Amino acid sequence: MSDLFFYGTLCHKPLLEIVLGRTAGCIDARPGRLPDHAVFWARDEVFPLIAPAPGQNTPGLLVRGLDAEDLARLNFYEGGFGYGRETVQLTLENGEFAAAEVFFPEPGLWTPGDPWSLTDWAARWGALSCRAATEAMGYFGRIGPAELALRFPAIRRRAASWLAAQASPADPAHDAVHDVRLIDHRFAHLNFHGIEEARIQFRRHDGAMSPELDRSALMTGAAAVVLPYDPVRDTVLLIEQFRAPLYLAGDPAPWLWEPVAGLIDPGETPEQTAHREAMEEAGLVLRNLEKVGEAYSSSGSSGEFVHLYVGIADLTGAEGIGGLASEGEDIRSAAVRFDALIAAIDAHRHRDMPLLVTALWLARHRERLRTGAGVSSFGQ
């Protein structure tokens, strides 16, 4: 049995329960303090680090009686991020001293920022971290800590999308709480995207419950899509890039013309993502965004939710090669006359659904946008 002292996010008991796989009532936890140390936000990150600080006392949670399974789960959750355990001496509330292990970051791995606040972290990131940990711990025993750390940014994006979906208005015609039965669920596969599998029943339109159904879903997160449009020149900017799913589906033409698009990072608004992706993929500054709509991209197979925009921009000299090398992107952009775009759509030459949706929305609102830009007629 081992005793560990937690000073950061694992002091949030809902998160600790998920990581250890048991309820707080089954965890022997009590307050304690680590002398001559202080906790700081890791600069530009959403988690804390601990560092020596003579004369200060770090409050935290002493958890006693952890077995080999507990330690394995903790090492899986923390080990891939450059944290290792060291033994320290603690002071308990009753004045007693106790020895315990603490997860310390590797020296120099993170830069200390402002003093850490568990309350502030829990208010902004607690729910997201709990949802991300639920998926992460679903892979315990199947992958290693290093792979988990590599995939954790995508896990957090999916967690943010899940929370946003939970905040959606309820369906007045159906009650998902009572009319859907989740019999079994597992996180089946983890890569850039995730795959979840479930055995499920739902209430049919005749009032009876459906048979038990085995279903799977590609879980991506939420994305922002923006079609850049120059109302003065009456042109749009399209990007072309290789798409592995098309290749894997057997398509002999896996390079696809699309609008700018990207996944929404935790803490970002869809609008912020649209502006960021326009710069990353096309080197483009958008003047403003026109909202097209928001929808699930393929509700029968994927949980991806897309926010669609037309972005007003000056497309002079906008063509070129862009994308982030760190994300394996190789993106070519091209300015296309609006009438040529619509002609290509009518000829069924474009195969990207968000492009079709945003282009057809633009066809309905083009005159308003051009008038607003001071263009008096389409002939100019």
TrEMBL record:
Keywords: Hydrolase, Magnesium, Metal-binding. Its EC number is 3.6.1.13. This is ADP-ribose pyrophosphatase. It is an enzyme of class 3 (hydrolase). Its cofactor is Mg(2+). CDD domains: GGCT_like, NUDIX_ADPRase. Residues 219-358 form the Nudix hydrolase domain. Pfam families: GGACT, NUDIX. It catalyses: ADP-D-ribose + H2O = D-ribose 5-phosphate + AMP + 2 H(+). It comes from Antarcticimicrobium luteum. Mg(2+) binds at A261, E277, E281, E329. Acts on ADP-mannose and ADP-glucose as well as ADP-ribose. Prevents glycogen biosynthesis. The reaction catalyzed by this enzyme is a limiting step of the gluconeogenic process. Belongs to the Nudix hydrolase family. NudF subfamily.
